[in-house]
Amino acid sequence: MTDTPHYQLFIDGQWTEGADGQTMSTLNPATGEEWATFACAAPADIDRAVTAARRALSDPAWRDLSQTARGKLLHRLADLIEQHAAGIGRIETTDSGKLLAETASQTAYVGDYYRYYAGLADKIEGAVLPIDKPDMHVFTRREPIGVVVAIVPWNAQMFLTATKLGPALAAGCAVVLKASEVAPAPMLEFARLIEEAGFPPGVVSVLTGDAEACAIPLTRHPGVDRIAFTGGPETARHVVRNSAESFAVTTLELGGKSPILVFEDADLEGAANGLIAGNFGASGQSCVAGSRGLVHRPVFDALVARIEEKMAGVTIGDPLEAQTQIGPLCTAAQIAKIEATLAAATAQGATIRFGGAPLARPGNYMPPTLVECAGPDTATLHVEMFGPVMSLLPFDSEEEAIALANDTPFGLGSGVFTENLARAHRVSARLKAGICWVNTYRAVSPIAPFGGYGQSGYGREAGIEAIQDYTRTKTTWISTSDRPMANPFVMR
Protein backbone atom coordinates (compact mmCIF):
# COMPACT_ATOMS: atom_id res chain seq x y z
CA MET A 1 0.00 0.00 0.00
CA THR A 2 1.53 3.31 -1.06
CA ASP A 3 -0.33 5.27 1.62
CA THR A 4 0.83 3.10 4.54
CA PRO A 5 2.22 5.43 7.23
CA HIS A 6 5.82 4.85 8.28
CA TYR A 7 7.16 5.96 11.65
CA GLN A 8 10.80 6.70 12.40
CA LEU A 9 12.56 6.75 15.76
CA PHE A 10 12.98 10.06 17.60
CA ILE A 11 16.51 10.23 19.04
CA ASP A 12 18.38 13.32 20.22
CA GLY A 13 15.88 15.66 18.59
CA GLN A 14 16.14 13.92 15.21
CA TRP A 15 13.88 11.56 13.26
CA THR A 16 15.83 8.57 12.05
CA GLU A 17 15.63 5.01 10.81
CA GLY A 18 17.12 2.29 12.98
CA ALA A 19 20.86 1.75 12.69
CA ASP A 20 20.45 -1.70 11.15
CA GLY A 21 17.56 -0.70 8.87
CA GLN A 22 15.09 -3.14 10.42
CA THR A 23 11.37 -2.36 10.30
CA MET A 24 8.19 -3.97 11.60
CA SER A 25 4.56 -3.62 10.66
CA THR A 26 1.59 -3.03 12.91
CA LEU A 27 -1.85 -4.51 12.30
CA ASN A 28 -5.29 -2.99 12.71
CA PRO A 29 -6.97 -5.37 15.23
CA ALA A 30 -10.41 -4.55 13.83
CA THR A 31 -9.49 -5.90 10.38
CA GLY A 32 -6.31 -7.92 10.84
CA GLU A 33 -4.67 -5.90 8.06
CA GLU A 34 -1.35 -4.07 8.11
CA TRP A 35 -1.89 -0.35 8.37
CA ALA A 36 1.53 1.12 9.28
CA THR A 37 5.23 0.32 9.54
CA PHE A 38 7.85 1.56 11.97
CA ALA A 39 11.61 1.61 12.35
CA CYS A 40 13.12 -0.71 14.95
CA ALA A 41 15.89 0.42 17.26
CA ALA A 42 19.19 -1.47 17.29
CA PRO A 43 21.82 -1.48 20.09
CA ALA A 44 23.61 1.42 18.39
CA ASP A 45 20.40 3.47 18.57
CA ILE A 46 20.06 2.65 22.27
CA ASP A 47 23.57 3.88 22.94
CA ARG A 48 22.93 7.02 20.95
CA ALA A 49 19.73 7.80 22.87
CA VAL A 50 21.27 7.20 26.30
CA THR A 51 24.38 9.18 25.37
CA ALA A 52 22.18 12.06 24.21
CA ALA A 53 20.26 11.94 27.48
CA ARG A 54 23.48 12.08 29.53
CA ARG A 55 24.68 15.00 27.47
CA ALA A 56 21.36 16.80 27.94
CA LEU A 57 21.74 16.55 31.72
CA SER A 58 24.98 18.58 31.45
CA ASP A 59 23.75 20.94 28.74
CA PRO A 60 22.99 24.40 30.17
CA ALA A 61 19.87 24.49 27.97
CA TRP A 62 18.35 21.85 30.30
CA ARG A 63 20.63 21.74 33.34
CA ASP A 64 20.36 25.45 34.05
CA LEU A 65 16.70 25.81 33.17
CA SER A 66 14.87 26.99 36.27
CA GLN A 67 12.34 24.70 37.88
CA THR A 68 9.63 27.21 37.01
CA ALA A 69 10.72 27.20 33.37
CA ARG A 70 10.57 23.41 33.31
CA GLY A 71 7.00 23.71 34.55
CA LYS A 72 6.16 26.06 31.69
CA LEU A 73 7.46 23.54 29.16
CA LEU A 74 5.22 20.89 30.71
CA HIS A 75 2.24 23.26 30.53
CA ARG A 76 2.99 23.80 26.84
CA LEU A 77 3.14 20.03 26.29
CA ALA A 78 -0.20 19.63 28.06
CA ASP A 79 -1.79 22.21 25.76
CA LEU A 80 -0.45 20.42 22.69
CA ILE A 81 -1.72 17.07 23.93
CA GLU A 82 -5.22 18.46 24.36
CA GLN A 83 -5.12 20.06 20.90
CA HIS A 84 -4.10 16.78 19.27
CA ALA A 85 -6.06 14.39 21.50
CA ALA A 86 -8.62 13.44 18.85
CA GLY A 87 -5.97 12.67 16.23
CA ILE A 88 -3.74 10.69 18.57
CA GLY A 89 -6.80 8.87 19.88
CA ARG A 90 -7.80 7.83 16.37
CA ILE A 91 -4.28 6.55 15.66
CA GLU A 92 -4.20 4.63 18.95
CA THR A 93 -7.58 3.08 18.18
CA THR A 94 -6.47 2.04 14.70
CA ASP A 95 -3.26 0.59 16.12
CA SER A 96 -4.55 -1.15 19.27
CA GLY A 97 -8.29 -1.62 18.81
CA LYS A 98 -9.22 0.34 21.92
CA LEU A 99 -12.41 2.39 21.66
CA LEU A 100 -11.96 5.85 20.19
CA ALA A 101 -14.32 7.14 22.86
CA GLU A 102 -11.74 6.11 25.47
CA THR A 103 -8.47 6.79 23.63
CA ALA A 104 -9.43 10.34 22.68
CA SER A 105 -10.81 11.26 26.11
CA GLN A 106 -7.95 9.56 27.95
CA THR A 107 -5.39 11.36 25.80
CA ALA A 108 -7.04 14.69 26.55
CA TYR A 109 -7.17 13.88 30.27
CA VAL A 110 -3.47 13.07 30.55
CA GLY A 111 -2.83 16.72 29.87
CA ASP A 112 -3.88 17.19 33.49
CA TYR A 113 -1.05 14.88 34.59
CA TYR A 114 1.51 17.07 32.88
CA ARG A 115 -0.09 20.17 34.40
CA TYR A 116 -0.04 18.56 37.83
CA TYR A 117 3.69 17.93 37.57
CA ALA A 118 4.26 21.31 35.96
CA GLY A 119 2.85 22.78 39.15
CA LEU A 120 5.11 20.62 41.28
CA ALA A 121 8.29 21.39 39.33
CA ASP A 122 9.16 24.40 41.50
CA LYS A 123 7.95 22.75 44.70
CA ILE A 124 10.87 20.31 44.85
CA GLU A 125 12.51 21.51 48.02
CA GLY A 126 15.36 20.64 50.33
CA ALA A 127 15.62 21.45 54.02
CA VAL A 128 17.94 23.07 56.53
CA LEU A 129 18.68 20.46 59.18
CA PRO A 130 18.66 21.31 62.92
CA ILE A 131 22.04 19.63 63.26
CA ASP A 132 23.51 18.80 66.66
CA LYS A 133 26.78 20.62 65.88
CA PRO A 134 26.46 24.39 66.35
CA ASP A 135 29.41 25.24 64.10
CA MET A 136 27.86 23.50 61.09
CA HIS A 137 25.25 24.64 58.57
CA VAL A 138 23.74 21.53 56.99
CA PHE A 139 21.10 21.41 54.30
CA THR A 140 19.67 19.01 51.74
CA ARG A 141 18.68 19.51 48.15
CA ARG A 142 16.84 17.26 45.72
CA GLU A 143 18.68 16.70 42.44
CA PRO A 144 17.54 14.89 39.26
CA ILE A 145 18.20 11.18 39.49
CA GLY A 146 19.64 11.26 35.96
CA VAL A 147 18.82 9.25 32.85
CA VAL A 148 15.45 7.53 33.07
CA VAL A 149 14.27 4.65 30.91
CA ALA A 150 10.47 4.59 30.74
CA ILE A 151 8.97 1.41 29.28
CA VAL A 152 5.25 1.40 28.53
CA PRO A 153 2.90 -1.28 27.13
CA TRP A 154 0.37 -0.75 24.36
CA ASN A 155 -2.86 -0.84 26.40
CA ALA A 156 -2.85 2.64 28.04
CA GLN A 157 0.08 4.33 26.39
CA MET A 158 -0.60 8.02 26.86
CA PHE A 159 -1.70 7.54 30.48
CA LEU A 160 1.22 5.30 31.47
CA THR A 161 3.67 7.60 29.72
CA ALA A 162 2.32 10.63 31.58
CA THR A 163 2.76 8.96 34.98
CA LYS A 164 6.46 8.48 34.20
CA LEU A 165 7.43 11.34 31.90
CA GLY A 166 5.57 14.03 33.86
CA PRO A 167 7.44 13.65 37.17
CA ALA A 168 10.74 12.79 35.46
CA LEU A 169 10.77 16.00 33.42
CA ALA A 170 9.51 18.09 36.32
CA ALA A 171 12.45 16.78 38.36
CA GLY A 172 14.92 17.70 35.61
CA CYS A 173 15.74 14.20 34.35
CA ALA A 174 16.32 13.11 30.76
CA VAL A 175 14.17 10.25 29.47
CA VAL A 176 14.46 7.48 26.92
CA LEU A 177 10.89 6.32 26.30
CA LYS A 178 10.51 2.79 24.93
CA ALA A 179 7.14 2.09 23.32
CA SER A 180 5.82 -1.44 22.91
CA GLU A 181 6.57 -3.05 19.56
CA VAL A 182 2.86 -3.91 19.59
CA ALA A 183 0.92 -0.81 18.47
CA PRO A 184 3.65 1.86 18.96
CA ALA A 185 2.22 4.46 16.58
CA PRO A 186 0.63 6.80 19.17
CA MET A 187 3.91 7.07 21.08
CA LEU A 188 5.76 8.07 17.95
CA GLU A 189 3.04 10.63 17.19
CA PHE A 190 3.44 11.89 20.75
CA ALA A 191 7.16 12.45 20.09
CA ARG A 192 6.18 15.14 17.60
CA LEU A 193 4.55 17.06 20.45
CA ILE A 194 7.68 16.73 22.58
CA GLU A 195 9.60 18.31 19.71
CA GLU A 196 7.00 21.05 19.18
CA ALA A 197 6.84 21.90 22.89
CA GLY A 198 10.51 22.93 22.76
CA PHE A 199 12.31 20.47 24.99
CA PRO A 200 16.06 20.58 24.24
CA PRO A 201 17.48 17.75 22.10
CA GLY A 202 18.23 14.60 24.05
CA VAL A 203 15.90 15.38 26.93
CA VAL A 204 13.33 12.95 25.53
CA SER A 205 13.95 10.24 22.95
CA VAL A 206 11.20 7.87 21.79
CA LEU A 207 11.98 4.51 20.25
CA THR A 208 10.63 1.03 19.87
CA GLY A 209 11.78 -2.41 18.82
CA ASP A 210 11.95 -6.00 19.96
CA ALA A 211 13.45 -7.45 23.14
CA GLU A 212 16.82 -8.58 21.81
CA ALA A 213 17.80 -5.49 19.86
CA CYS A 214 16.04 -2.81 21.92
CA ALA A 215 14.67 -3.64 25.37
CA ILE A 216 17.55 -5.77 26.64
CA PRO A 217 20.40 -3.39 25.68
CA LEU A 218 18.32 -0.48 26.98
CA THR A 219 17.75 -1.97 30.44
CA ARG A 220 21.37 -3.17 30.62
CA HIS A 221 22.91 0.13 29.57
CA PRO A 222 25.43 1.41 32.16
CA GLY A 223 24.38 5.01 31.49
CA VAL A 224 20.86 4.48 32.85
CA ASP A 225 20.10 5.67 36.39
CA ARG A 226 16.43 4.72 36.73
CA ILE A 227 13.99 2.34 35.03
CA ALA A 228 10.22 2.82 35.25
CA PHE A 229 8.56 -0.26 33.79
CA THR A 230 4.94 -1.20 33.15
CA GLY A 231 4.23 -4.66 31.79
CA GLY A 232 4.04 -8.30 32.80
CA PRO A 233 5.80 -10.06 35.70
CA GLU A 234 7.94 -12.32 33.49
CA THR A 235 9.34 -9.41 31.52
CA ALA A 236 9.82 -7.49 34.77
CA ARG A 237 12.07 -10.23 36.11
CA HIS A 238 14.32 -9.78 33.08
CA VAL A 239 14.33 -6.01 33.62
CA VAL A 240 15.44 -6.42 37.22
CA ARG A 241 18.21 -8.85 36.23
CA ASN A 242 19.34 -6.55 33.42
CA SER A 243 19.60 -3.58 35.79
CA ALA A 244 21.83 -5.44 38.25
CA GLU A 245 25.10 -4.31 36.68
CA SER A 246 24.26 -0.59 36.67
CA PHE A 247 22.23 -0.64 39.92
CA ALA A 248 19.61 1.48 38.18
CA VAL A 249 16.75 2.29 40.54
CA THR A 250 13.78 0.30 39.30
CA THR A 251 10.04 0.58 39.80
CA LEU A 252 7.57 -1.93 38.41
CA GLU A 253 3.86 -1.60 37.68
CA LEU A 254 2.77 -5.06 36.63
CA GLY A 255 -0.37 -7.06 36.02
CA GLY A 256 -3.16 -8.15 38.31
CA LYS A 257 -6.13 -10.36 39.04
CA SER A 258 -8.04 -7.77 40.97
CA PRO A 259 -10.98 -8.82 43.17
CA ILE A 260 -14.31 -7.00 43.33
CA LEU A 261 -16.29 -7.88 46.48
CA VAL A 262 -20.05 -7.42 46.43
CA PHE A 263 -21.80 -7.69 49.79
CA GLU A 264 -25.49 -8.42 50.35
CA ASP A 265 -26.14 -4.82 51.42
CA ALA A 266 -24.69 -3.38 48.18
CA ASP A 267 -26.65 -1.38 45.65
CA LEU A 268 -26.90 -4.11 43.02
CA GLU A 269 -27.27 -1.71 40.12
CA GLY A 270 -24.06 0.05 41.10
CA ALA A 271 -22.32 -3.27 41.74
CA ALA A 272 -23.33 -4.62 38.34
CA ASN A 273 -22.03 -1.49 36.65
CA GLY A 274 -18.83 -1.69 38.68
CA LEU A 275 -18.23 -5.28 37.62
CA ILE A 276 -18.92 -4.41 33.99
CA ALA A 277 -16.55 -1.43 34.18
CA GLY A 278 -13.90 -3.58 35.81
CA ASN A 279 -14.18 -6.43 33.33
CA PHE A 280 -15.40 -5.03 30.03
CA GLY A 281 -14.02 -1.48 30.13
CA ALA A 282 -11.22 -1.26 27.53
CA SER A 283 -12.49 -4.69 26.39
CA GLY A 284 -10.92 -6.13 29.52
CA GLN A 285 -7.43 -5.01 28.45
CA SER A 286 -6.58 -3.28 31.70
CA CYS A 287 -3.99 -4.06 34.35
CA VAL A 288 -6.57 -3.25 37.04
CA ALA A 289 -9.34 -5.35 35.49
CA GLY A 290 -11.61 -6.59 38.28
CA SER A 291 -11.64 -10.08 36.85
CA ARG A 292 -12.38 -11.90 40.12
CA GLY A 293 -15.95 -11.08 41.15
CA LEU A 294 -16.72 -12.33 44.66
CA VAL A 295 -20.41 -12.07 45.49
CA HIS A 296 -22.30 -12.63 48.77
CA ARG A 297 -24.37 -15.75 48.19
CA PRO A 298 -27.77 -14.23 49.15
CA VAL A 299 -27.55 -11.78 46.21
CA PHE A 300 -25.54 -13.93 43.80
CA ASP A 301 -28.38 -15.02 41.51
CA ALA A 302 -29.98 -11.58 41.42
CA LEU A 303 -26.67 -9.93 40.54
CA VAL A 304 -25.89 -12.49 37.83
CA ALA A 305 -29.32 -11.91 36.25
CA ARG A 306 -28.77 -8.16 36.26
CA ILE A 307 -25.31 -8.51 34.70
CA GLU A 308 -26.57 -10.89 32.01
CA GLU A 309 -29.30 -8.43 31.10
CA LYS A 310 -26.74 -5.66 30.70
CA MET A 311 -24.36 -7.88 28.72
CA ALA A 312 -27.10 -8.69 26.23
CA GLY A 313 -27.33 -5.00 25.35
CA VAL A 314 -23.61 -4.40 24.83
CA THR A 315 -22.66 -3.14 21.36
CA ILE A 316 -19.68 -4.90 19.80
CA GLY A 317 -18.17 -3.40 16.69
CA ASP A 318 -15.77 -1.00 15.01
CA PRO A 319 -13.82 0.81 17.77
CA LEU A 320 -13.93 4.00 15.72
CA GLU A 321 -17.74 4.12 15.92
CA ALA A 322 -19.24 6.14 18.76
CA GLN A 323 -21.86 3.54 19.69
CA THR A 324 -19.34 0.69 20.09
CA GLN A 325 -18.80 -0.45 23.69
CA ILE A 326 -16.51 -3.43 23.11
CA GLY A 327 -14.02 -3.52 20.26
CA PRO A 328 -11.41 -6.01 19.14
CA LEU A 329 -8.55 -7.26 21.29
CA CYS A 330 -5.14 -5.99 20.29
CA THR A 331 -3.61 -9.35 19.33
CA ALA A 332 -4.76 -12.78 18.21
CA ALA A 333 -2.61 -14.29 20.97
CA GLN A 334 -5.02 -12.88 23.56
CA ILE A 335 -7.91 -14.75 21.93
CA ALA A 336 -5.95 -18.01 22.05
CA LYS A 337 -5.11 -17.51 25.73
CA ILE A 338 -8.74 -16.80 26.62
CA GLU A 339 -9.96 -19.88 24.76
CA ALA A 340 -7.42 -22.11 26.52
CA THR A 341 -8.28 -20.68 29.95
CA LEU A 342 -12.02 -21.04 29.39
CA ALA A 343 -11.51 -24.66 28.32
CA ALA A 344 -9.54 -25.34 31.50
CA ALA A 345 -12.25 -23.69 33.62
CA THR A 346 -15.10 -25.67 32.09
CA ALA A 347 -13.10 -28.87 32.61
CA GLN A 348 -13.05 -27.90 36.30
CA GLY A 349 -16.83 -27.60 36.35
CA ALA A 350 -17.27 -23.89 35.61
CA THR A 351 -20.33 -22.73 33.67
CA ILE A 352 -20.08 -20.16 30.88
CA ARG A 353 -23.24 -18.11 31.37
CA PHE A 354 -22.68 -15.71 28.49
CA GLY A 355 -20.34 -15.48 25.49
CA GLY A 356 -17.34 -17.78 25.49
CA ALA A 357 -16.32 -18.03 21.82
CA PRO A 358 -14.61 -15.60 19.42
CA LEU A 359 -16.86 -13.89 16.92
CA ALA A 360 -16.80 -15.15 13.34
CA ARG A 361 -15.77 -11.87 11.74
CA PRO A 362 -12.53 -10.22 10.62
CA GLY A 363 -10.38 -8.96 13.48
CA ASN A 364 -9.70 -10.11 17.03
CA TYR A 365 -13.22 -9.98 18.44
CA MET A 366 -14.15 -11.71 21.70
CA PRO A 367 -17.63 -11.05 23.13
CA PRO A 368 -18.17 -10.21 26.80
CA THR A 369 -18.03 -13.50 28.63
CA LEU A 370 -19.45 -14.46 32.02
CA VAL A 371 -18.10 -17.48 33.91
CA GLU A 372 -19.80 -18.92 37.00
CA CYS A 373 -16.91 -20.57 38.80
CA ALA A 374 -17.14 -24.01 40.40
CA GLY A 375 -14.70 -23.11 43.18
CA PRO A 376 -11.74 -20.92 44.13
CA ASP A 377 -9.32 -22.96 42.00
CA THR A 378 -11.15 -22.22 38.73
CA ALA A 379 -8.60 -21.26 36.08
CA THR A 380 -10.27 -17.98 35.10
CA LEU A 381 -9.82 -16.73 38.67
CA HIS A 382 -6.05 -17.02 38.43
CA VAL A 383 -4.97 -16.40 34.83
CA GLU A 384 -4.68 -12.81 33.61
CA MET A 385 -6.33 -13.12 30.19
CA PHE A 386 -6.38 -9.44 29.17
CA GLY A 387 -9.81 -9.74 27.61
CA PRO A 388 -13.53 -9.28 28.42
CA VAL A 389 -14.01 -12.26 30.74
CA MET A 390 -15.83 -11.86 34.08
CA SER A 391 -15.55 -14.66 36.64
CA LEU A 392 -17.99 -14.80 39.56
CA LEU A 393 -17.73 -16.88 42.72
CA PRO A 394 -20.09 -16.79 45.74
CA PHE A 395 -18.96 -16.37 49.34
CA ASP A 396 -20.77 -16.79 52.65
CA SER A 397 -19.04 -14.45 55.10
CA GLU A 398 -16.90 -11.34 55.25
CA GLU A 399 -13.90 -13.34 56.45
CA GLU A 400 -14.25 -15.77 53.54
CA ALA A 401 -14.53 -12.90 51.07
CA ILE A 402 -11.32 -11.29 52.34
CA ALA A 403 -9.49 -14.63 52.27
CA LEU A 404 -10.60 -15.29 48.69
CA ALA A 405 -9.69 -11.77 47.62
CA ASN A 406 -6.17 -12.11 49.03
CA ASP A 407 -5.65 -15.60 47.57
CA THR A 408 -3.44 -14.36 44.73
CA PRO A 409 0.20 -13.40 44.20
CA PHE A 410 -1.02 -10.14 42.63
CA GLY A 411 -2.15 -7.01 44.42
CA LEU A 412 -2.82 -4.06 42.13
CA GLY A 413 -6.51 -3.12 42.24
CA SER A 414 -9.52 -4.13 44.32
CA GLY A 415 -13.13 -3.11 44.71
CA VAL A 416 -15.73 -3.24 47.47
CA PHE A 417 -19.46 -2.69 47.02
CA THR A 418 -21.36 -2.16 50.26
CA GLU A 419 -23.68 0.43 51.79
CA ASN A 420 -22.17 -0.24 55.24
CA LEU A 421 -19.54 2.43 55.91
CA ALA A 422 -17.92 0.47 58.73
CA ARG A 423 -17.60 -2.57 56.50
CA ALA A 424 -16.14 -0.45 53.69
CA HIS A 425 -13.35 0.78 55.98
CA ARG A 426 -12.84 -2.61 57.61
CA VAL A 427 -12.61 -4.63 54.40
CA SER A 428 -10.64 -2.13 52.32
CA ALA A 429 -7.99 -1.97 55.05
CA ARG A 430 -7.47 -5.73 54.92
CA LEU A 431 -7.27 -6.16 51.15
CA LYS A 432 -3.70 -6.70 49.96
CA ALA A 433 -3.77 -4.33 47.03
CA GLY A 434 -2.28 -0.96 46.22
CA ILE A 435 -5.64 0.51 45.16
CA CYS A 436 -9.11 -0.01 46.58
CA TRP A 437 -12.22 1.47 44.99
CA VAL A 438 -15.38 1.50 47.10
CA ASN A 439 -18.74 1.66 45.29
CA THR A 440 -16.92 2.62 42.09
CA TYR A 441 -14.19 1.15 39.91
CA ARG A 442 -11.46 2.08 37.42
CA ALA A 443 -11.11 5.73 38.40
CA VAL A 444 -7.76 7.56 38.16
CA SER A 445 -6.36 11.02 38.93
CA PRO A 446 -2.93 12.65 38.74
CA ILE A 447 -3.30 13.37 42.46
CA ALA A 448 -3.76 9.71 43.49
CA PRO A 449 -0.79 7.29 43.71
CA PHE A 450 -1.02 4.14 41.61
CA GLY A 451 0.84 0.86 42.16
CA GLY A 452 0.70 -2.64 43.57
CA TYR A 453 1.79 -5.26 46.04
CA GLY A 454 3.48 -8.62 45.42
CA GLN A 455 3.73 -9.66 41.77
CA SER A 456 1.89 -6.49 40.79
CA GLY A 457 5.18 -4.68 41.35
CA TYR A 458 6.62 -2.01 43.62
CA GLY A 459 6.91 1.75 43.62
CA ARG A 460 4.15 4.25 42.95
CA GLU A 461 3.20 6.42 40.01
CA ALA A 462 1.18 9.67 40.09
CA GLY A 463 0.71 11.79 43.18
CA ILE A 464 3.23 13.95 45.00
CA GLU A 465 5.45 11.08 46.13
CA ALA A 466 6.17 10.00 42.55
CA ILE A 467 8.21 13.11 41.82
CA GLN A 468 10.50 12.33 44.76
CA ASP A 469 11.35 9.01 43.09
CA TYR A 470 12.96 10.91 40.22
CA THR A 471 15.33 12.81 42.50
CA ARG A 472 18.24 12.01 44.81
CA THR A 473 18.95 13.74 48.09
CA LYS A 474 22.28 15.55 48.45
CA THR A 475 23.36 16.61 51.95
CA THR A 476 25.77 19.55 52.16
CA TRP A 477 27.81 20.35 55.31
CA ILE A 478 29.33 23.83 55.66
CA SER A 479 31.53 24.67 58.61
CA THR A 480 30.73 28.09 60.05
CA SER A 481 33.70 28.03 62.45
CA ASP A 482 36.60 30.43 61.93
CA ARG A 483 38.94 27.80 63.35
CA PRO A 484 40.69 25.15 61.26
CA MET A 485 39.57 21.54 61.41
CA ALA A 486 40.55 19.78 64.61
CA ASN A 487 42.05 16.28 64.86
CA PRO A 488 41.68 14.80 61.35
CA PHE A 489 41.83 11.26 62.74
CA VAL A 490 38.66 11.57 64.81
CA MET A 491 35.21 11.64 63.22
CA ARG A 492 33.11 14.55 64.31
Automatic annotation (TrEMBL):
SUPFAM superfamilies to which the protein is assigned, alphabetical: ALDH-like
* CDD domains associated with the record: ALDH_DhaS
Span of domain Aldehyde dehydrogenase: 15-475
Can you tell me which residues form the catalytic site? E253
Q: Does the keyword Lipid metabolism apply?
A: no
Q: Which residues form the signal peptide?
A: none
Classification via InterPro entries: Ald_DH/histidinol_DH, Ald_DH_C, Ald_DH_CS_CYS, Ald_DH_CS_GLU, Ald_DH_N, Aldehyde_DH_dom
Q: Which UniProt keywords apply?
A: Oxidoreductase
Q: Which GO terms describe its molecular function?
A: oxidoreductase activity, acting on the aldehyde or oxo group of donors, NAD or NADP as acceptor
Q: Family assignment?
A: Belongs to the aldehyde dehydrogenase family.
Protein name (database record): Aldehyde dehydrogenase (NAD+)
- Which organism is this protein's natural source? Marinovum algicola
